[in-house]
Amino acid sequence: MIPFPIALGPIDSEVSLFNLSPTKGETQECGDSISHRLLLGSMSFILYCDHAIPLNSVCDIFFQLIDAPILDPDTNIRLSWAAATLGTWLLVGLCQCPDDNCSCATQQTKEILHSLKEFQAQMYYREQSRNRDHVTVLEQFQIGRTYFARPMVCQHHPNLMVGEFGIITAHCTTHGDLMATVDIPTHGSMEILMDLNFIQVGFGQAVVVRTCLCRTK
Protein backbone atom coordinates (compact mmCIF):
# COMPACT_ATOMS: atom_id res chain seq x y z
CA MET A 1 0.00 0.00 0.00
CA ILE A 2 1.25 3.50 -0.88
CA PRO A 3 1.96 5.50 2.31
CA PHE A 4 -0.14 8.68 1.96
CA PRO A 5 0.31 11.54 2.52
CA ILE A 6 3.62 11.77 0.66
CA ALA A 7 6.11 14.61 1.11
CA LEU A 8 7.14 15.93 -2.31
CA GLY A 9 10.01 18.34 -2.78
CA PRO A 10 9.98 21.38 -5.09
CA ILE A 11 10.14 21.07 -8.87
CA ASP A 12 13.81 20.69 -9.66
CA SER A 13 15.26 19.02 -12.75
CA GLU A 14 18.32 17.96 -10.75
CA VAL A 15 16.28 15.93 -8.22
CA SER A 16 15.57 12.26 -8.91
CA LEU A 17 11.91 11.67 -9.77
CA PHE A 18 11.80 8.78 -7.32
CA ASN A 19 13.43 10.60 -4.41
CA LEU A 20 10.27 11.67 -2.60
CA SER A 21 12.12 13.36 0.28
CA PRO A 22 14.85 15.53 -1.31
CA THR A 23 17.29 17.17 1.05
CA LYS A 24 16.86 20.71 -0.31
CA GLY A 25 13.72 22.82 -0.41
CA GLU A 26 10.49 22.60 1.53
CA THR A 27 8.30 19.56 1.02
CA GLN A 28 4.66 19.67 -0.04
CA GLU A 29 2.06 17.19 1.17
CA CYS A 30 0.54 14.98 -1.50
CA GLY A 31 -2.70 13.39 -0.28
CA ASP A 32 -4.48 10.21 -1.30
CA SER A 33 -6.57 10.30 -4.50
CA ILE A 34 -7.21 8.14 -7.56
CA SER A 35 -5.14 10.50 -9.75
CA HIS A 36 -2.19 10.38 -7.36
CA ARG A 37 -2.32 6.59 -7.17
CA LEU A 38 -2.41 6.33 -10.97
CA LEU A 39 0.59 8.62 -11.39
CA LEU A 40 2.67 6.88 -8.73
CA GLY A 41 1.67 3.49 -10.11
CA SER A 42 2.56 4.45 -13.68
CA MET A 43 5.99 5.75 -12.64
CA SER A 44 6.59 2.57 -10.63
CA PHE A 45 5.64 0.59 -13.74
CA ILE A 46 8.44 2.31 -15.66
CA LEU A 47 10.91 1.72 -12.84
CA TYR A 48 10.21 -2.01 -12.55
CA CYS A 49 8.99 -3.03 -16.04
CA ASP A 50 10.69 -5.79 -18.01
CA HIS A 51 13.42 -4.27 -20.18
CA ALA A 52 12.51 -6.73 -22.92
CA ILE A 53 9.27 -4.82 -23.59
CA PRO A 54 9.72 -2.52 -26.63
CA LEU A 55 10.08 1.16 -25.69
CA ASN A 56 7.19 2.25 -27.90
CA SER A 57 4.88 -0.22 -26.10
CA VAL A 58 6.09 1.04 -22.70
CA CYS A 59 5.36 4.63 -23.79
CA ASP A 60 1.86 3.72 -25.01
CA ILE A 61 0.98 2.09 -21.66
CA PHE A 62 2.51 4.94 -19.66
CA PHE A 63 0.67 7.70 -21.52
CA GLN A 64 -2.66 5.90 -21.25
CA LEU A 65 -2.15 5.83 -17.47
CA ILE A 66 -1.05 9.46 -16.98
CA ASP A 67 -3.11 11.28 -19.63
CA ALA A 68 -6.17 12.07 -17.48
CA PRO A 69 -4.45 12.44 -14.05
CA ILE A 70 -1.95 15.09 -15.12
CA LEU A 71 -4.80 17.21 -16.53
CA ASP A 72 -6.85 16.88 -13.34
CA PRO A 73 -6.71 20.37 -11.73
CA ASP A 74 -6.79 18.79 -8.25
CA THR A 75 -3.67 16.71 -8.89
CA ASN A 76 -0.54 17.77 -6.99
CA ILE A 77 1.45 19.82 -9.52
CA ARG A 78 4.79 18.40 -8.35
CA LEU A 79 3.59 14.86 -8.99
CA SER A 80 2.13 15.86 -12.38
CA TRP A 81 5.42 17.51 -13.30
CA ALA A 82 7.36 14.38 -12.35
CA ALA A 83 5.11 12.15 -14.49
CA ALA A 84 5.34 14.53 -17.47
CA THR A 85 9.12 14.74 -17.09
CA LEU A 86 9.46 10.96 -17.05
CA GLY A 87 7.24 10.76 -20.12
CA THR A 88 9.44 13.28 -21.89
CA TRP A 89 12.57 11.27 -21.08
CA LEU A 90 10.91 8.13 -22.46
CA LEU A 91 9.85 9.81 -25.71
CA VAL A 92 13.29 11.30 -26.27
CA GLY A 93 14.42 7.68 -26.63
CA LEU A 94 12.14 7.40 -29.67
CA CYS A 95 13.33 10.68 -31.20
CA GLN A 96 16.50 12.46 -32.22
CA CYS A 97 16.74 15.79 -30.40
CA PRO A 98 20.03 17.57 -31.16
CA ASP A 99 18.27 20.83 -30.20
CA ASP A 100 14.71 22.02 -29.49
CA ASN A 101 13.61 20.58 -32.85
CA CYS A 102 13.11 16.84 -32.43
CA SER A 103 12.86 14.33 -35.27
CA CYS A 104 10.59 11.46 -34.22
CA ALA A 105 9.52 8.19 -35.82
CA THR A 106 5.91 9.36 -36.14
CA GLN A 107 4.12 12.71 -36.13
CA GLN A 108 2.00 11.56 -33.20
CA THR A 109 5.11 10.90 -31.09
CA LYS A 110 6.44 14.35 -31.95
CA GLU A 111 3.12 15.99 -30.98
CA ILE A 112 2.96 14.13 -27.65
CA LEU A 113 6.55 15.13 -26.85
CA HIS A 114 5.77 18.78 -27.66
CA SER A 115 2.65 18.70 -25.49
CA LEU A 116 4.54 17.19 -22.56
CA LYS A 117 7.25 19.85 -22.77
CA GLU A 118 4.58 22.56 -22.77
CA PHE A 119 2.90 20.90 -19.80
CA GLN A 120 6.19 20.77 -17.89
CA ALA A 121 6.61 24.51 -18.44
CA GLN A 122 3.05 25.18 -17.21
CA MET A 123 3.65 23.20 -14.00
CA TYR A 124 6.93 25.01 -13.40
CA TYR A 125 5.36 28.45 -13.78
CA ARG A 126 2.41 27.46 -11.55
CA GLU A 127 4.88 26.34 -8.89
CA GLN A 128 6.87 29.57 -9.15
CA SER A 129 3.71 31.68 -9.09
CA ARG A 130 2.48 30.03 -5.88
CA ASN A 131 5.75 30.92 -4.18
CA ARG A 132 5.46 34.64 -4.96
CA ASP A 133 4.19 37.17 -2.43
CA HIS A 134 0.42 37.32 -2.91
CA VAL A 135 0.15 41.03 -2.12
CA THR A 136 2.74 41.83 -4.79
CA VAL A 137 0.92 39.67 -7.34
CA LEU A 138 -2.43 41.35 -6.67
CA GLU A 139 -0.84 44.79 -7.04
CA GLN A 140 0.78 43.77 -10.32
CA PHE A 141 -2.48 42.43 -11.76
CA GLN A 142 -4.83 45.16 -10.61
CA ILE A 143 -8.54 45.03 -11.36
CA GLY A 144 -9.44 47.32 -14.25
CA ARG A 145 -6.11 47.00 -16.06
CA THR A 146 -5.76 45.60 -19.55
CA TYR A 147 -3.78 42.49 -20.37
CA PHE A 148 -2.34 40.93 -23.53
CA ALA A 149 -2.33 37.17 -24.13
CA ARG A 150 1.02 35.41 -24.33
CA PRO A 151 1.57 32.03 -26.07
CA MET A 152 1.58 30.04 -22.81
CA VAL A 153 -2.03 30.96 -21.96
CA CYS A 154 -3.26 29.48 -25.23
CA GLN A 155 -2.43 25.98 -24.06
CA HIS A 156 -5.43 26.39 -21.73
CA HIS A 157 -7.48 28.60 -24.04
CA PRO A 158 -6.66 27.58 -27.66
CA ASN A 159 -9.19 30.05 -29.10
CA LEU A 160 -7.13 33.00 -27.87
CA MET A 161 -4.51 34.61 -30.08
CA VAL A 162 -1.16 36.10 -29.14
CA GLY A 163 -1.63 39.77 -28.35
CA GLU A 164 -5.39 39.54 -27.85
CA PHE A 165 -6.47 41.82 -25.01
CA GLY A 166 -8.92 41.79 -22.12
CA ILE A 167 -9.78 43.65 -18.91
CA ILE A 168 -9.07 42.17 -15.47
CA THR A 169 -12.37 42.25 -13.57
CA ALA A 170 -11.72 40.10 -10.45
CA HIS A 171 -9.23 37.98 -8.50
CA CYS A 172 -9.80 34.47 -7.20
CA THR A 173 -7.97 31.37 -6.01
CA THR A 174 -8.62 28.16 -7.96
CA HIS A 175 -6.98 24.86 -7.00
CA GLY A 176 -4.36 26.78 -5.03
CA ASP A 177 -3.46 29.12 -7.91
CA LEU A 178 -3.97 32.90 -7.93
CA MET A 179 -6.19 33.58 -10.93
CA ALA A 180 -7.45 36.72 -12.66
CA THR A 181 -10.95 36.81 -14.11
CA VAL A 182 -10.47 38.51 -17.46
CA ASP A 183 -13.23 39.90 -19.66
CA ILE A 184 -12.22 39.34 -23.30
CA PRO A 185 -14.40 41.11 -25.90
CA THR A 186 -14.39 38.18 -28.34
CA HIS A 187 -14.62 35.30 -25.81
CA GLY A 188 -16.30 36.53 -22.62
CA SER A 189 -14.84 35.91 -19.14
CA MET A 190 -11.94 33.53 -18.54
CA GLU A 191 -9.85 32.63 -15.50
CA ILE A 192 -6.12 33.03 -16.24
CA LEU A 193 -3.12 32.42 -14.00
CA MET A 194 -1.66 35.68 -12.68
CA ASP A 195 1.81 35.15 -14.08
CA LEU A 196 3.69 37.22 -16.68
CA ASN A 197 4.46 34.07 -18.67
CA PHE A 198 0.71 33.78 -19.32
CA ILE A 199 -0.48 37.37 -19.60
CA GLN A 200 1.30 40.68 -20.07
CA VAL A 201 -0.26 43.55 -18.17
CA GLY A 202 -0.57 46.74 -20.20
CA PHE A 203 -1.33 50.38 -19.51
CA GLY A 204 -4.13 52.61 -20.82
CA GLN A 205 -6.21 51.71 -23.86
CA ALA A 206 -5.50 48.25 -25.24
CA VAL A 207 -5.19 47.52 -28.93
CA VAL A 208 -6.03 44.11 -30.33
CA VAL A 209 -3.03 42.56 -32.05
CA ARG A 210 -3.81 39.41 -34.03
CA THR A 211 -0.40 38.52 -35.36
CA CYS A 212 -0.39 34.74 -35.10
CA LEU A 213 -2.27 31.82 -33.64
CA CYS A 214 -1.12 30.61 -30.25
CA ARG A 215 -0.99 27.07 -31.53
CA THR A 216 0.24 25.88 -34.87
CA LYS A 217 -0.45 22.56 -36.49
Written overview of the protein:
- A hairpin with a 3-residue loop joins strand 7 and strand 8.
- The radius of gyration is 19 Å and the shape is globular.
- A 5-stranded antiparallel sheet has the order 8-7-6-5-9. The protein has a two-stranded antiparallel sheet with strand order 1-2.
- It has 5 helices and 9 strands; from the N terminus they run E-E-H-H-H-E-E-H-H-E-E-E-E-E.
- The chain has 2 domains: 6-130, no CATH class; 134-201, SH3 type barrels.
- Helix 1 (34-48) packs antiparallel against helix 2 (55-71) and helix 1 (34-48) runs parallel beside helix 3.
- It has 217 residues and is α+β, with helices and mostly antiparallel strands.
Uncertain segments are: 204-217
Order of helices and strands: EEHHHEEHHEEEEE
Give the end-to-end Cα distance, rounded to a whole number of Å.
43 Å
The share of residues in extended strands comes to: 15-25%
Mean pLDDT: 80
Question: Into how many domains do the coordinates divide?
Answer: 2
Specify the overall morphology: globular
Summarize the main sheet.
5 strands, antiparallel
Number of helices: 5
Overall radius of gyration: 19 Å
Number of DSSP strand runs = 9
Report the helical percentage: 25-40%
Class of secondary structure makeup = alpha+beta
Strand order of the largest sheet: 8-7-6-5-9
